[in-house]
Design goal:
The chain has about 190 residues and is of the alpha/beta class. Helices cover about 30% and strands about 20% of the residues. It has a five-stranded mixed beta sheet, sandwiched between helices. Strands 2-3 form a two-stranded antiparallel ribbon. A hairpin with a 2-residue loop joins β7 and β8. The chain is globular. The chain starts with a strand and ends in a 30-residue tail after the last helix.
Length: about 190
């Protein structure tokens, strides 16, 4: 099993009153804490295959690319977090071999504004989560459904076909954090929520 880690760093910080991703805490922008944590995970874990960062800020894009991370530009971040989830998943799935989209990989999302998320917590989380020993549906851990959790790439690939480019359905016309068609009605898992 392999993981694709996706850093979400395209928010507006409306409640914060400005771009909180670039806000400095102890001399470092908030988003950089998460980026460094993910880079460390990739370096130390053989099952972390890739790290993608979704952003709409050139400064973040340039910094993360110098760290060797692939960045995905989200010009539609004004639609909310669902647009960043989708942009990251589409980019990750586009790199899969034809006909195998997401068969052997799970994706895990991290918020770019969580400077206190600890390496040990995420490392243990990835160790304990068995995404390929379950049915296609809501995340299961210790026999219970719930979140947060990695999302199987196979589920995401099928959802894009069913929901089309907008990610909207007739019964859910606004962008949302719903899982994109796995039938669970739950949200896509985020490691940092």
């Amino acid at each position: 099993m392999e993981y694709g880690l996706i850093l979400l760093a395209a928010g507006f910080g409306r409640r914060f009153g400005g771009n909180k991703l670039l806000y400095r805490l102890e001399g470092k922008p908030l988003y950089l804490y998460g980026a460094e944590l993910l880079a460390r995970l990739k370096k130390q874990r053989k099952d972390v295959r890739e790290i993608l960062a979704v952003t709409r800020y050139r400064e973040i894009e340039e910094t993360l690319e110098t760290m060797g991370m692939k960045t995905v530009w989200n010009p539609r971040s004004y639609l909310g977090i669902a647009s960043s989830l989708r942009a990251g998943l589409e980019a990750a799935l586009a790199e899969e071999a034809p006909g195998t989209a997401g068969e052997k990989k799970a994706f895990c999302f991290f918020m770019g504004d969580q400077p206190y998320l600890q390496f040990e917590t995420v490392n243990r989380f990835l160790d304990r989560y068995p995404p390929f020993r379950q049915r296609d549906g809501p995340p299961l851990l210790s026999g219970k459904t719930g979140e947060p959790g990695p999302v199987r790439g196979k589920i995401c690939a099928g959802a894009f076909k069913a929901y089309g480019r907008s990610g909207r359905t007739p019964d859910h016309p606004q962008p949302s954090g719903r899982s994109l068609g796995d039938g669970s009605g739950g949200r896509l898992g985020t490691a940092g929520s």
